[in-house]
Amino acid sequence: MRASDRSRERDRDSEKHIDRYKEIQLRQLSTFCVAAKEGNFTKAARTLGLSAPTVWQQVRALEQRLKTTLMRRRGRNVVLTDDGRLLLELVQPHVSGLESLESLFAARQRMLPPELTVAAIPYLASTHLIEPVRRFADEHETARLTLRVLVWFQEVIRQVEQGQAELGVIFVDRGEARSPQLEYEFLRDLPLSLLTPKRHPLTRKRSISLKDIIEYPLIVPPEGAFARRTLDQLLSRGDLNQQARIVMETPLAEVIRHYVAAGMGVALLHVDEEPAKSAVYRRPLEGWDEGISISLVTRRGAHAAEPVEVFQRLLRDYFGVRQEDSKESGNSLTT
Q: Which positions carry the signal peptide feature in this UniProt record (predicted)?
């Protein structure tokens, strides 16, 4: 850029700065009101935490915009002109109202019912969140709780990252990278479990291998799900991909359970105990070391309102963890 072009650009920037000062701004009106009350630019500057020249400049900008004189010097003090008194009469109520806006807003905000949005994957929403949600509703009868059930844990991550949900409850593979935007709080480990119909031949075996399992049709989650990734890794490790027979694929653990109970096949899932009257037999695969964790995620640095803190406490109580033991180390998940 040539020197003449840079000079013209600086002139344009200077003109823009002058034009901005010519606009009537709230801080100019507020400064004018304080100067009128104090009768002195230095005292007004002390009240406002500004310099005396800045106070004078803002009052002068108002005068230029209104094309009149609002204050005249009298020794070290300033007095209002007739136009100055007229302007003060017009703007003082509005400026005072705006200055009290913050406290008024906070007072009215306290009158609104507290809101909380929790995002969770279907299995956790339909099992582990029932008790914390019920207790939250009992403790906060006026609160409005939104439970967003999202099939993929990546959707839960995204909702919390973008501030659309204050809390997320998801599965986490401890070997995966974590989102730097989120805080992760460990709640519980979940083992990999085999689901079969009751009285299935596998329920009578003392020890079970992957070869035993793939003798039967498999009902699996879609690719990308934690349990599917685990199954694929196990099959590849044992060179058993060609022998496995997948008869059904669905992302919902509850649907998988129903079809296992109906005798369509067996399944490998990260789940807890089965209900007492369930037609499905659950067998944790001890020693397989393929478990995952249930974790609570929140946005890093976000203000935790009271409903958020209450729900966090209820989750910790339900899972039996202490806050000081629940923080996960390392950076937090984005897959």
A: none
Length of the chain in terms of residues written: 335
24 CB contacts (<8 Å, ≥6 apart)? 62, 65, 66
What is the residue-averaged pLDDT of the chain?
86
CATH entry 3.30.230.10 includes domain 192-284: no
Residues in contact with 139: Cβ distance below 8 Å, sequence separation at least 6, in sequence order: 310
**Is 94 strand, coil or helix?**
helix
| Domain layout of the chain by residue ranges | 3-107, 115-190+292-326, 192-284
> Thinking of the domain 115-190+292-326, which architecture would CATH place it in?
3-Layer(aba) Sandwich (3.40)
**Better-scored residue on pLDDT, 328 or 192:** 192
> Whose CA is closest to 62, among 37, 98, 97, 35?
35
CB distance 176 to 335 below 8 Å: yes
Report H helices in the chain: 3-22, 26-38, 41-48, 52-66, 82-99, 101-111, 122-126, 130-139, 153-161, 210-213, 226-237, 253-261, 306-319, 323-326
**Among residues 266, 285, 292, 274, which one has the least CA distance to residue 153?**
292
Mean pLDDT of 68-89: 92
Measure the CA–CA gap between 48 and 31, rounded to whole angstroms: 8
Euclidean distance between CA atoms 292 and 192, whole angstroms? 8
The share of the chain scoring above pLDDT 70, in percent, equals 85
The answer, yes or no, to whether residue 101 has pLDDT greater than 50, is yes
- Cα–Cα nearest to 294, from 322, 328, 266, 324: 328
The answer to whether domain 115-190+292-326 and domain 192-284 are alike in fold is yes
Overall average pLDDT of the 266-293 stretch: 87
Tell me how crowded residue 298 is: count the other CB atoms within 10 A of its CB. Answer: 19
pTM of the predicted model as reported, rounded to 2 decimal places: 0.65
CATH number of 3-107: 1.10.10.10
**Which residue, among 189, 206, 173, 208, has the nearest Cα to 288 in the 3D structure?**
208
- Nearest CA to 83 out of 99, 98, 67 is that of 67
